[in-house]
Amino acid sequence: MSLRPDIRGFEKLAAHVPDLREGREPLVGLIGFVIFAAATAILLTIDHLWPTYTGLGQIGAIIAGFLFAARFFWRRKAYRARWGDLAYRNAFVRCILPGMPTIMAAIVHTAYLPGDRLPWNWARSLLIAPAAYLVVVGLLLWARSVLTFGIDNLAMLYVYFPEESPMVDASIYSVIRHPVYSAVSHIGLALGLWRGTWFSIAFGLLMPVGLTIWLRLVEEPELLERFADSYAAYRRKVPAFWPRLQDWGKFFRFVMIGR
Length: 259
Prior knowledge:
With 259 residues, the protein is mainly α. It is built from twelve helices and no strands.
């Protein structure tokens, strides 16, 4: 019996993933959870046995997840030639399913990184309010993005089936280019501020840098191939993750009501 959720874009995604059509979506979720748990266990082991290298462990997990997920894009032509109609499904299972949970485990690890917190009580107190703001906005933005753009967009179906992914005319795209990654940046920085160590704060602040590297090396070359000069002009005009001050009104309107 299928536990198929009523989520926008799910049917379009299921059309190319037999596991979802056959009611095996809980298994897909379970595999992602197991990978997340395994990555978390490795990070905790490093924290306990080699606390001096916990930062390297976190960065290593990010790089490992990046390399797994990047193959989904970089080997697209080879996967199509090898698997045909099942290229997307197999690439997702081999690349995105291990890669993204590993990256998310590293981001969540920011909340419990070992190390001394900032030495001044007043400084730690000042970080609580912005951390709370960032995590709430990040979660709301992520949820709003899924509802607006669909789970097929979040699962990057457009990479293998661009003809089935029409342009979405949403107001948020005039404010930021990548709302889901903006949500991840908000949450990562929130966790770094809440933990309050020098490394956790630095990691949170540098997350947009890592995401920019991902976009420039992996995702945006595909967008430039599809949309050419129009996307290049758009990239110059609109910031990737953080809205300009004059666009905060539009940003929060999208977060709250999706317009």
